[in-house]
Design brief:
It contains 12 helices and 9 strands. It is an alpha+beta fold. It has 2 domains: about 130 residues, DD-peptidase/beta-lactamase superfamily (Beta-lactamase); about 130 residues, Beta-lactamase. It has a 5-stranded antiparallel sheet with strand order 3-2-8-7-6. A two-stranded antiparallel sheet has the order 1-9. The longest helix has 15 residues. The structure holds glutamine. Glutamine binds next to loops.
Amino acid sequence: MDKNNCNILLKNILESNLKNYQKGKVASYIPALNKVEPNLAAVVMVDMTGEVYKAGDWNYKFTIQSISKPIVLALAILELGEEAVFKRVGVEPTGEEFNSINKLVGHPKPFNPMINAGAIAVTSLIRENKSENSFNILLKFFKNLFGNKDLKVDEEVYKSEKMTADRNRSLAYFLKDHRIIKGDVEKSLDLYFKQCSIKVDTVDIARASSVFANRGIDPITGDRIISKKVASIVRSIMLTCGMYDRSGSFAIDVGIPAKSGVSGGILAPVKNRFGIGVFGPSLDNSGNSVVGMNVLKSLSEELNLHML
Ligand SMILES: NC(=O)CC[C@H](N)C(=O)O
């Protein structure tokens, strides 16, 4: 695709969808997230030759939040194998909010790894080894997958979440009581808060997305980061569960696997075509970026990206 034309297309799509930020709200249940300007917006695409197209506030930094969930899922499967991971977490949608406790009662194995309960269970599987603590193992994998050696934790957001995470703490202790989490609960929670607080920009999100789109190979460096099978598992779970209880309507409208985070990012890999990252901090009531979803819908229509 001609680079100039594609950059213009992205700019036009972003501008025509920007006003939708007024239909949502910036997350405030983690107090440090509430400081952002609601009308920031960005879209970045990486194609399978490694070309990068971008528009808007693409270098604005935000915390990755739930977009870390598919990444840690990939790491856990690589470290422990599919069987061990899916013994602790399922692969079915819940139709509930991302931090819901409802479905755990009577069914302590979390429904899927994209909701908080399932993600905390997956994070608890990342164990330290003789030479490295579990956060370093996790961060090293993120740096590799994002092609960015400078990734680090936003300390303010990390502390803010840690101090206000009563819901996540209750989910984790419930999982421990049912032996879904086996180790130290506070350690698993701390690792989860840190993974959610890693600072990224929309280019980082698009690059990580391009690895999933390119079936495990980074299109910019040509390095294999994850196996084809792991890329396929993660894309599949994103399609059915990545947008929480909007996943079904998002699949109909947009037709691209996607994972959102409460700071406003969405990672959306289009197999064999593009890694897409979008950003807009104003959220709908399911916790998904309003501008981000609209931009993805327009892109899907303009570039014929719907998979079904
Ligand atoms: N949907 C999200 O991005 C949620 C992530 C956030 N850190 C939480 O656990 O509540």
